[in-house]
Amino acid sequence: MKRFWQNKMHVKLRWCDGAKIGRASGALVMGLAMALPAFCQSGLATEGPLLSPRPREVHTGVLVPVHSVQISVPGGDGDDLFAATNLGEELERDGIKVSPSAGPVDLTVTLYREYSPAAQELLANEHLAFEPAMAAEGYIVVAKAHSVAIVGQSAAGVFYGVQTLKQLMSVGNGIPAIWTGTVRDWPAMKVRGVHDDLSRGPFPTLAFQKHQLDVFAARKINLYSPYFEHTLAYSGQPLAAPPGSSLSRAEAQELVAYATRLHITVVPEQEAFGHLHHVLQYEKYSDLAETPHGHVLAPGQAGSLPLIGSWFGHIAEDFPSPYLHIGADETFELGTGRTKEDVTKRGLGPVYADFLRSIHTELAPLHKRLLFWGDVAWNDPSAIAGLPKDMIAIPWIYWHEDSYDANITPFAKVGIETWVTPGDANWNVVYPLGKAALDNISGFVESGQRLGSTGELTAVWDDDGEGLFNLDWYGVLYSAAAGWEPAKKDLTVLQAEYVPTFGATFYHDLSGRIDEAQKELIATEVGPDAMDNADQAFWLDPFSEAGAKWYAKFGPQIPGARKHAERAIELIEFVKADTPGLREREALDAMEMGARRIDLIGMKAQLAAEMQAAYKRAYELKDDKNHSTEARELLYSISSMNGRCQDLRDAYSMLKNLYKQAWLAENRPYWLDNVLVRYDLRIELWQRRAEEFNTLIDRWQDGRGLPTATAAGFPALP
Predict the structure, then answer these.
(1) Of the residues 256, 482, 608, 683, which has the maximum number of CB atoms within 10 A of its CB?
(2) What is the DSSP pairing of strand 265-266 with strand 269-270?
(3) Does the pTM exceed 0.90?
(4) Is 509 within the bounds of a domain?
């Protein structure tokens, strides 16, 4: 077996535990000796760079301080020049001077194409070589004390080598440095994508979408799929797109141009079958709906296919990718209205499959491959054989399965290509279920790779209308690693490699505290202190019947869950205060807000129970003159300057402001009021209760007694 790299550079280095410097020059040893104390103060001990996705073959040597860099592109290729600019901007953010011309510098970085004589000589000297699987996106990095060479056969390969070099750079306590070593890398899956819901509330600004693309590209994600039901502004069908919450034609074209430089293909999903209520609610489209103002486009109606053709003709012009994503999932109304007779006669599967074939025929002149959700594998697997073989099925599962194979094999058996879609588990929760996402992504992607799926498309959904993408990075970036790296039979291995990289590679926090904060938040969702962190729990009135049941179920876990959330808040605040060069502060603010929302869920239940207990005791003492002070203070603990009612009012008010800031950091204002009104209602609820209770206290102090707990608004204790 041919050896592709030398082991002589595989030298372990551990900060703060005795540095092993290996074969290095005297000047390098002295430079490292001067740098080590500062790096040790960063608090993060490591035997090498923290890389995500983890390269297929990596051998690291020593960490070399760098203050100035010169970047060279001998071939002059435009894409490679962009990659050089992309690298230079990152280095300058790290405090490294990028020199545009020849002169004394610490490090030279050269971007080569593999066919150049200089690259060929370098690879031969290093005993490194490309193989066929590396042609499209593979790369080789050779990093030495004073020079780095990045070699790719393609523009994408050079670009991805640059992204890995960024992670080989390290800034500990403000001292930039680079890991020496060799990397040889290529992806396991051709398509590695993120599917982003833009139709259920939050709609990002164009600036934030560009930021998303920057982060995606840095993790070697190569496909972005914004999800549209009605929020793409079609020039020929403008009625349904909400003003202020839709992507205009000019914005779409600008987004595609931006993504193209980053080697990302933008493939919007436009629902073409189900999930179309926000279109079908308009009377213009009433004849096309399966049921009146429903959510399924009815097959067989004269206007259905022309509408689809109009939409996708527009998409094909503005999003010039090889694909069109027609959706076609969760068509639950099919067979309940206009198609009832046909479905009764022929069955749901054939009617569904026939309409997909009709769409395929309608869109054939656009010469694109159609993507569709793989629901038919559940509903009627026998219908799959009749689907056009050039379509790509996207089976989706967002929860744990012991085996995901059954979602892929029905398509594989008939020769239909598949991409797998796990979920980020971000919907309907105040903070995404990180552990659930990692489990689902690991298992589904492993099945996909083993069974020949060519892509993975991790889904981010905003069913609740209040999800924020800045809360979703933990799972999204894990999916990038899962799609790029070869699948591992032991799913915990990939997770174990990823978890320690998140804070360092995303936030540039080398202290490990953000990773610890993430663990604390996961501990509020799984384990002995697990508590229900659903949106419903956040908005729940603890004095309602449902609130009493919630407390009865989760009451014992609340103290532990709150401590985890509060520890996460502290860790985040410490990082904000003392970390120079910290990145993604708005995402960190959103993470802290999520922790504070979790804390409020528990606090709300505790304070409600304390109010109930206080009133019960005060009622017992209401006529006892010897304990009137105790009774008064018990009542004041419910409503006063330090009352529990005021505590909950203030907590919702604080979080309303934090939520608004987090929303506007990434989204357009549209829909925001639909969420803020829920905060307003909770603020009003506790303010009203406080005022009503103040009146009750005044009446008691005037000698008119206290009503029963039920009359005072307190339900029985669970």
Answers:
(1) 482
(2) unpaired
(3) yes
(4) no
